[in-house]
Design brief:
2 helices, Aminopeptidase, Acyl_CoA_acyltransferase, acyltransferase activity, transferring groups other than amino-acyl groups, six-stranded mixed β-sheet, single chain, alpha+beta
């Protein structure tokens, strides 16, 4: 990873062995500089043991407190229920579904687009629809 090109990598190691990794890629386009794309993988034999939770916690801290990222986006297969549950625990919401998104094991699979907006600190979120006057 090279922070100068907007790529940040986090690696989870146990006994000098890599058991998971997470990448954040910040968008360089001026109107989307507040956005990062997230991708994560945890080794099969380490899933369900807190590796994903630790990686997500570190990524959220990096995005919120160091990179000034307002929005994190990701794509996840619709049948990856443990990952979807993890992302929801960290504030991600499903924004849409891509049908026949990828070809896996002889068949097409769908994927969700999920995103998390950084919580507003100490004030009203003026962009929230709940704070806008009725139209």
């Amino acid at each position: 990873a090279n922070p100068s090109d907007g790529n940040y990598a986090l690696v989870a190691c146990v006994d000098a062995e890599i058991v998971g990794s997470l990448g954040l890629h910040t968008v360089e386009r001026p109107r989307r500089r507040h956005v990062a794309d997230l991708g994560m993988a945890v080794r099969d034999d380490w899933q369900g043991k807190g590796v994903g939770t630790a990686l997500m916690g570190a990524a959220i801290d990096l995005a919120d407190n160091w990179l000034n990222i307002e929005r994190i986006e990701l794509t996840v297969y619709t049948d990856n229920h443990p990952a979807i549950a993890l992302y929801k625990r960290f504030g991600f919401e499903i924004e849409g579904t891509h049908f026949r998104y990828a070809f896996r094991e002889g068949q097409y699979v769908d994927a969700h687009t999920m995103a998390r907006l950084r919580p507003v600190r100490g004030g009203n979120d003026l962009t929230s629809s709940s704070t806008l006057p009725p139209s």
